[in-house]
Write a structure and sequence with these properties.
Layout lengths: L1 H24 L8 E4 H13 L6 E8 L6 E4 L1 H17 L3 E13 L3 E10 L32 H11 L5 E5 L3 E11 L5 H5 L1
Parallel strand pairs: 2-4
Antiparallel strand pairs: 1-3, 4-5, 5-7, 6-7
Length: 199
């Protein structure tokens, strides 16, 4: 049953990733602007991945700034999708060592709040010649044996979603030593009622 469940989950991800990517490439993908419970979202991501390495010698290290705002305006689902794709990718190619996730306040104005997100690992790294193509669809750097399953769209979708949100993913990687993916997004401030803030 576990194999059937895993296969069904993977198939649904293939379908979802494919639909999302097709819409993005066709210019038909629209982000929503809603209240994002940033603290809760980041906490739940950390909680989810803190148990993601139980079968491998990998330590998950969260590093979250205390000064992050409680709420911002943005597309919560797509932010989760980007961070999930980056973290899944990091765990997939790290057999031992660590995967870290950081979120830091990097700038603040009257209208917007900039937050830097960082996903780093001590995995196999990405060869220099592959770093230029790693965000292309159906590219999975560093493996041709089929050992690692996946759609080959995770990083491509993450890259395009971050661009739609006004950011850019920066990659630094050394083969055999690991990779670091980072991006900064500026979120409009959330201005809520006193009742909302007190509740």
């Amino acid at each position: 049953m576990a194999l059937i469940s895993q296969s069904s989950e993977w198939l649904m991800r293939v379908i979802t990733d494919g639909l999302d990517f097709s819409k993005i490439e066709a210019g038909e993908f629209l982000l929503v602007s809603e209240r994002v419970d940033l603290q809760k979202t980041i906490h739940e991501i950390c909680e989810l991945y803190s148990g993601g390495s139980e079968h491998k010698q990998v330590t998950f290290i969260p590093d979250i700034s205390d000064d992050l705002p409680d709420y911002v305006m943005g597309d919560q689902l797509r932010l989760i999708q980007v961070l999930g794709n980056l973290l899944n990718n990091a765990f997939k190619f790290t057999q031992r060592g660590y995967v870290s996730f950081g979120a830091y306040l990097s700038g603040e104005t009257e209208r917007g709040i900039s937050i830097l997100f960082v996903v780093e690992d001590s995995g196999r790294g990405i060869r220099k010649e592959e770093q230029q193509t790693v965000f292309e669809p159906f590219k999975q750097a560093g493996h041709k044996s089929g050992k690692h399953s996946g759609t080959g769209l995770g990083l491509a979708i993450a890259d395009r979603l971050v661009k739609l949100m006004g950011g850019h993913i920066d990659l630094k990687s050394t083969e055999g030593k690991g990779s670091r993916f980072s991006f900064s997004l500026t979120f409009p401030r959330y201005i809520g009622s006193a009742e909302e803030h007190s509740g």
